[in-house]
Structure formats: structure tokens, C-alpha cells
Amino acid sequence: MAGKKQFDMDTALDAAMIQFWRAGYADTSVDDLSRATGLNRSSIYSSLGDKDTLFLRCLDRYAARYGDKYDAALSCAASEPLAAVRAFFDVTLERIADPELPDGCLIAQSAMAIPVLSPAVAAHARQALGFQRLRLRAALKAGRMTDQDAETFAVYAAAVNQSLAVMSRAGASPAQLLAIVDVTVDALSQALRA
């Protein structure tokens, strides 16, 4: 039967997300996206949008996929804040260790590229980064930290989490990354006792 070639939207978005994740926004061309998705340029524009629109969709997809995992990890924060934060970092360490995925983190990469992003894309990258802090803050508040302590530690833990992605991309070993997490969880343990 003759007609339009069909494609799976989820598969195309995942392929685009991996391309942006692997090369970064600035170093990904529409031709790169075409090769990654198997779609020609006109199909990308008509089905997925221009590069900015597609990148925002991929950033949202990434944030939702891992955000759900972070939320599940932090769900026990009210009763076990240390276990929840450890589980939060485990989500990142598992993603980093997955050989099927690029090193690093699409959100961390996007945050580092903010100076070269369009204002709308930069704002979206900042927002995605901020969600991680808000997620941690809410969990730490549920774990009975004061507002100020929860905010301070949430900023710290989110920064550590992003640094894990950067360090992995720079070649840090799993043992080194785990040591960073251990120090962070120990700091939280001391803060909770104080």
C-alpha cells in the first residue's frame, strides 16, 4: 500500500534525546538528528519541530523519565531520610553505569551550555535543574529538617548529583563516584543529628 512512511514517535524522540545527550545542544545539527532518528530534515521539522522545540521535548522527556525514578527513590524520606537520599543517588549511579546510555546527564550538560542557548531553551534548562533541588527539598522537609536546612542541603545534594554526571563524563571510576555519594550521605547524617 502506497502512502506516507510511518515512524514511531517515541523511538524518534529517544534517538534525538540520546543524540543531544551524547553531543550536547550546540554540537548537534539537524543533520545529526536526521541520522540519529532515521528521519529526513523535512520530517523532523513537520513531526518533531525545529531544533529548539525538539530539544525542549527531549529535555522534558529526560526530566520526566529520571524525575519519576528520583521521586520513587525519595518516597521514603519522611521515615528514612538517609535511605531516601542514598536511593536518590543510586538512580544517578545506575544511569551512569548503564552501558546503553551516554555518560553524564542531559540536564547537567544543558546547564553548562546555558551561555550559548537561546533564552527560552536556557530558561527551560534552568527550570529542569531547579526541579531536582525542589524534589530534594520537599523530601528533606518530609524528613523533618528545618526549612533553611532542607533548602541548604537540597542545593548541596543537587550540586553533588550534577557533579557525579560531570565526573563520570570526565572518566571518574564507579568507586570514586560512590565515595562522593558516601561523603554526601555522611554529611546529611550529621546534619540530621544536629
UniProtKB/TrEMBL annotation:
- Supply the alphabetized keyword list: DNA-binding, Transcription, Transcription regulation
Indicate the secretion signal residues. none
DNA-binding found in the keyword field: yes
* GO-annotated molecular function: DNA binding
Q: Does the record's keyword annotation contain Nucleus?
A: no
For this protein, the record's Pfam families field holds: TetR_C_13, TetR_N
Domain HTH tetR-type as annotated: residue spans: 6-66
* Source organism, top-level taxon: Bacteria
Q: What residues are annotated to bind DNA?
A: 29-48
**PANTHER family associated with the record:** HTH-TYPE TRANSCRIPTIONAL REGULATOR YJDC, TRANSCRIPTIONAL REGULATORY PROTEIN
Name of the protein in question: HTH tetR-type domain-containing protein
Source organism of this protein record:
Streptomyces malaysiensis
